[in-house]
User: What shape does this take?
Amino acid sequence: MRNTPIVLLFSLVCSFSINAQNTRIVDKNEIGWYAFFGTFKIAEKFSIHSEFQARRTDYIADKQQNLLRVGVNYQANSKLLLRLGYAYVETYPYGEYAINAQGKDFTEHRIFQMATINDKISKFELSHRFMLEQRFVGRYTQPGLTVENEYVFMSRIRYMFRIQMPLKGTEIKNKTPYIAAYDEIFIGFGENVNENIFDQNRIGLVLGYRFDNNFRIEAGYLNQTLQLGREINQSNVFQSNNGIVINTLLNLDLTKKVAK
Assistant: This one.
């Protein structure tokens, strides 16, 4: 917990460093991210995580990325959640400078390990999420190919800090509106990291409403700063993507017996 200010300072330094570079290209896009998160409890300490995100550009008009993520959760204690999972990602060409050098969509398979630490100070709920990803990113070795013919292995570590608080009362319970802010930084490492050791950073501010123990909705603003893994005209390329995010969160306890 004490390292949180250091991590946030590091994130800010990265952002200032991006803005201060003289040899950079900035590609600005409007985005809309629409996500469903489902958690299904199957035992006292175990649950299944499911997630689908439809990420769009021009807010909703065009495809940016589709992401499907599944995993197994282990609730080690009241504050620590562990997760092991897999993600399937399809990224499409968008913006002035596509992520894929040939301007094509590409597939990515990920294996990930995650640890989330939750805490509460007064009416503020704090969350620290650490994620390690092993990524297999599709690549075209020849311009004429229509399907990726090899996958490059890449590694990435992520850290997200989130803080939220109720807009009435002292805790987020049923029929309670709340506000949340978060920042997540992505760092690439390993032999195939290329230009983007700093991979990306995401900042969000959302309003949420908890209807009951099972269902919540969040909506708000999202900023994504992303660095491409290659240079163009000897300049680093950064995407500055700004827009909206809408999250639907479902939490079901499948261990409860249905009353007759």
Notes: Helices lie at 4-20. The domain at 4-253 is CATH 2.40.160 (Porin). Residues 4-20 form the longest helix (17 residues). The chain has one domain: 4-253.
